[in-house]
Write the C-alpha cells for this entry.
Amino acid sequence: MKSYRISNAPDVHTPRLDEELRAALGAAYLGVSTDGDGVRVHLTDGATVSDEALAEATVLAHDHTQPSSVEAVQTEANARCAAATGAVNAADLVTLLADLAAADTVDDLREQVMALARVVSHLAVAQGFAPAVEDVYGV
Amino acid sequence: MAWTNIPDKNTGDQMDETWYDTHFKANMEYLLNPSHQCILRVNSSNYTTTSTSWVDVDATNLAITLTTYGGPVLVVFSGYGSHSVSNGSIYLDIAVDGSRVSGVAGIMITAAATGELQNLSFAVLVTGLSAASHTIKLQWKVATGTATLFSATGAYATQLSAIEL
C-alpha cells in the first residue's frame, strides 16, 4: 500500500471525499485519512504517478460543505420523519374518530378512512417503516 | 537512565563502588523510572480514516520511540471516537517497528450506532522485544464508512503511553 500525503489540502469532509476519491480512482483506491496536518490518500502498490496526480486534484477540488450521498439520504429521511411526527402530533384523533363514527354515506366514510389512513401512514413514516400515503396515492 | 545487565559474580570477587554504582544503584533507579513515554495529543482536528487497510493514525504525533532493555512493554491507548455507519467497525492495533502486534482484526474492534460516542481505549503487553530502540505507532482501519478519533481542540484528547516493565 502507498500513502500519498497532500499537505496543502483544504478542509475536508471525509465521508464525501472518500466517495469522490473512490469514484475517481476506482480499484487503485484504498481509503483516505486525515490527521490535522493534511490528507493521506491510501493507494494500492500498483497505483501510478497519474493516480497520485488524480488523487491530489480530487482532494484540492473537494468541497467540505457538501454531505456524502449516505448523509444526504439520511438528512432527507430525518426531515421526512420530523414532518411526519409533526403531522401525527397535529392530528385531532378525537374529532377524527367521532367523524368516522358519524359518517353515514359512502363518501363521508371514504373521507374519514383516508384521513385515518394518513395518520397511520405518518406514524409509519415517523417510525421509518413506510412511505407516506401522500407519496403513494397523491392525497 | 539505563539498565545494565548484571554480570555473574564468583566467590572472592569484589563489589566495589563502581560495581555498586553501575549494577545496583543505576539499575535500581532504572527500575523506579524505566523507559517510558506518554503522549497526550490535542490535535488541530479530529483524526479520520476510510482506509480498509491498516494505516498509521498519526505517524508523527502518535508515535513513541523507546530504548528498551529486553523487558516487556505495556502500551496503553485511550481515546473516543465514532463511525459514520450504523454498526460500522473501527479496528485498532499498534505496530512496533512497523509490524502490527495482533492478528488480522487487531487488538480491538468497536461498533455502535451511527455517530455514537465509542470508547476506543485498550492496553496491550508487548513481549519479546530485543534490547534496542523501538518505535510504537497506533494504527487503525475500517470495514466500511468513516471512522473518527476525537482529538480536536475542545474535544477529547487522545493518549498513547508506553513503559518498559
